[in-house]
Every structure is written in C-alpha cells, then in structure tokens.
Amino acid sequence: MPIVETYPVVVEGIGRVDYSNAVEITTEPVITSWQNVFTFSELVAPIPAGGSLAVNMPIPSDLVVIIYDYFASIPANRLIRLVVAMVDPAGPVITVLDELAYQTVSIHLLRGKTFVGSIRYTLYNYAATPETGMRIGAAGIYTTEDQFTLHISP
Amino acid sequence: MPQIVETFAVETQGIGRVDFTKTVERSTSNVATSPLRQTSVWTSASYVLPVGPYPWYYIAVWPLPQENGTWAYPASTIMETYNNVAVSITKNALVGAALVRFASLADYYILNIAEYFPRLFGYGKVVINLTTGISTRPGSVYGLLFGFWTGGITERVTINVHGLVWDLTPPWMT
Fold first, then answer.
1. What tens-digit pLDDT sequence spans chain A (154 residues)?
2. Is residue B131 situated within a structural domain?
3. A153 and B32: CB-CB below 8 Å?
4. A150 contact B CB<8A
C-alpha cells in the first residue's frame, strides 16, 4: 500500500520550475548506491583457436539493467572481437555492439543501453591457439521495471 | 517576484526507499549535479616496486572517511564512487588491474576478495573507466589489484583512482 507524502515546491525564475529546493537530494543522478550498481566480471575460457564462445549474463526477472561500460580483455596484444546482444526469451536476439580491437575492447556509452532478460557476450579469438585468459566485464546500474517505466502523475 | 507553491504527491515504494521519480521526472536533468553535495576524491600514488620474476601481484587499499571525522579502511555511510582507475609502469610490459571489494577488514587480511569489478589488461598501462561508478558499501574494504608480467626487477609504478565522495548517504541507499 503506497504511502503518499506531500510537500511544497517553490517556483523561481521565468518559465523554469525549480524543483531543486525540495528534491535536491533525490534528483542527483550520479549518486548510485552500491545497491544499484550492476557489475559483471568473468573469465571466459577457453575460446577455441579461430572460434568463438558465448556467455549469457542473466538479469533477475523484476529488474532492468542499464549498462554503460563494456569490457573484454586478454593478456596479450592479439586481435579480439566482442559482440553484445540483448536476449529476450520471447523475442529476437538483437545485437547492440560489435567491436574489434587488439587486446582490450573498452566501450563507454554516455547513454546506457537497457537490458531485460539477459545479456549475451560473444567473444571471438582470431589466433591460431586457444585463448585461455579472456576477461569480460560490464558496469552500469540496476533499476526496477516499475521505476524504469515512465510514470507521470496527474 | 511572487512565488508559486505547487504540491505534489510522492509515493513510497519498498522498504526505506522513497521513489521521487514519478513526480520529478520532468525536472531531472542528468547534468543537474549540485556542487554542494559532491567532492572529488582520489588516490594517487607512485612507488618503485619489485615487479619480477613475473607475474607479480599487489593489492593497494586506501582509508575511507568515517562519520566521526576519522579515516579507516572499511567504508562508512559516507559514500565514495569510483569512476576512473589507472595503473601504469615505466616499461611497455603487460599490466593487469581491477578494482576489488573485500567484505570486511578481516577478509582483506586474508585476501579473500568478495567481488571483482571489471578487469583489464594492457601494455604499459591499464585504464578502467566506469561511467556510472562503483559506490562503496558500508563495512567493505576497497582496493586495487594489479599485476605485472615483466622480466625486470623493479619498476616505478603509478596508481590513480578518481571519483566522488558524498556526504552522508541518504538512508534508503545504505
């Protein structure tokens, strides 16, 4: 049962509603509690020579993950490829990112990508030997589906 | 100028968590950072360290501000958020680095890592950028795990961790 609070908001200036007086603490988007931080770090190995390996990161069913940072890195200066896809059990697999780099793929999005269901990382190894040291990572924030869905009060 | 007062309804959801998003959604710009509530924080250090025979690992931890004005390794409810982590070495040798979390000081003493944040490798340096940042959890100890693969004996090593420190964390975030 939701509890309803009311509080006054002061309007200042012209054509600009200043909500900061009453909500200054909560409109700070950079504060991310450790509870809201989503990170993922895993060793993906072995990736066969000239082959690929896919890893799914599951997302709890009632949560939405917004990922800003995507990483893949190996302890050698060799070519790798990272493909990130959204995997919705009821829908298609949609590729979000596909990048090649030597040693490290490190992608930072100013606006995070939203994932529901699970995230699939597919790693490619172009070397003639299996890759045993591939580390993958992701960082972003958790939110609830309820908060993620836009609500505007009347 | 006359001031107009509006009244909004704010719903509370969950436990100890006030959800202001529904009514202030129009006004929350993602650049609306109040300078009064944030301060830059960093750890910047340079050492000459043994780096070989390889691989050679280190864990560096740093003290965190406490509510009573002192400093200690376990995080308090004064939250720090780390956005940039960097390790570099005076040689184009392989470097690996990660920000790590220990669940407690006791876990740090036995090097029992509870959580690895993204780990990267590089030659000469590693830079880990975390757009939304890693925020400290009360009671946990944070450190930088880094290692080198080089045939050298000692090298100068620099580490840098940059982010923000917040005053007391709002209670629903602890």
1. 566 666 665 555 555 445 555 443 333 345 567 888 899 999 999 999 999 999 998 888 788 888 999 999 999 999 999 999 998 777 788 899 999 999 999 999 988 888 888 899 999 999 999 999 999 999 998 887 666 665 555 4
2. yes
3. no
4. yes
CB contacts < 8 A, A to B, total 186
Total of domains in chain B: 1
Residue (of B105, B119, B28, B40) closest to B74 by Cα position: B105
Subunit contact A103:B122, Cβ cutoff 8 A: yes
| ipTM of the predicted assembly exceeds 0.85 | no
pTM score of the predicted model? 0.73
Domains and CATH numbers, chain A: 30-148 (2.60.120.220)
Residue A149 CB contacts under 8 Å (≥ 6 apart), including other chains: none
Residues 107-126 of A with CB under 8 A from B: 108-110, 112
Contacts of A109 in chain B (CB under 8 A): 131
B92 is a domain residue: yes
Inter-chain residue contact A30 with B133, CB threshold 8 Å: yes
CATH number of the structural domain spanning residue B103: 2.60.120
Instruction: Give chain A positions within 8 Å (CB) of B96.
Output: 75
Does the distance separating the beta carbons of B32 and A26 come in below 8 Å?
no
Q: How far is CA A10 from the centre of its chain?
A: 36
* CB contact (8 A) between residue B121 and residue A74: yes
Residue B91 lies in a domain: yes
Question: What letter represents residue B63's amino acid?
Answer: P
Strands B71-72 and B64-65: antiparallel
Range of the domain at B142: 34-173
> For residue B40, is it within any domain?
yes
